[in-house]
UniProtKB/TrEMBL annotation:
Name of the protein described by the UniProt record: Ribose 5-phosphate isomerase
Pfam annotation, one family: LacAB_rpiB
Similarity comment text for this entry: Belongs to the LacAB/RpiB family.
Species: Gordoniibacillus kamchatkensis
GO molecular function, one term: isomerase activity
Keywords in alphabetical order: Isomerase
Length: 152
């Protein structure tokens, strides 16, 4: 598996741990930075990670920022990306199995490397369900992306 990895400056302290986790799992990594603790805007990094997923260069993406929330918001603005903040084991597999999530977002200020390892391994091993109701719901998410949404 190939994973696109991105982080901002707040996620940088967890980055080495995430890289070690991915390598220990035999995962190839496309590292989109950041590469130090200098401030960087997470939407710029999210675009790089998501582009790798959408073009097929990577099967999944992982974003690390302070809480995971900003990275998730940025990634979810890109059509075709379904990103989720995962700060527990259940969310890490359920988001893939039920919602076909392709980008996991972690908060370096929330979890440490040991806990992140369990979440990442769970996320990468999860597969989208073949059950019709989950596939129907994900198709409706794609419809929302294509629509010019106007509140009723």
């Amino acid at each position: 598996m190939i994973v696109a990895l991105g982080n901002d400056h707040a996620g940088y302290p967890l980055k080495d741990g995430v890289l070690q986790i991915l390598r220990s799992l035999g995962v190839q990594v496309i590292d989109h930075g950041s590469y130090d603790a200098e401030p960087v805007d997470f939407p710029d990094i999210a675009r790089l990670v998501c582009d790798s997923v959408l073009t097929g260069q990577a099967q999944r993406g992982i974003m690390v920022c302070g809480t995971g929330v900003g990275a998730s918001i940025a990634a979810n603005k890109i059509p075709g990306i379904r990103a989720a903040v995962c700060h527990d084991i259940y969310s890490a597999h359920q988001c893939v199995e039920h919602d076909d999530v392709n980008v996991m977002c972690l908060g370096a200020q929330i979890v440490g490397p040991t806990v992140a390892a369990a979440y990442i391994e769970t996320f990468l091993k999860a597969e989208f369900s073949t059950e019709e109701h989950f596939r129907r719901r994900v198709a409706k998410l794609a419809e929302l992306e294509r629509a010019n949404y106007n509140p009723r």
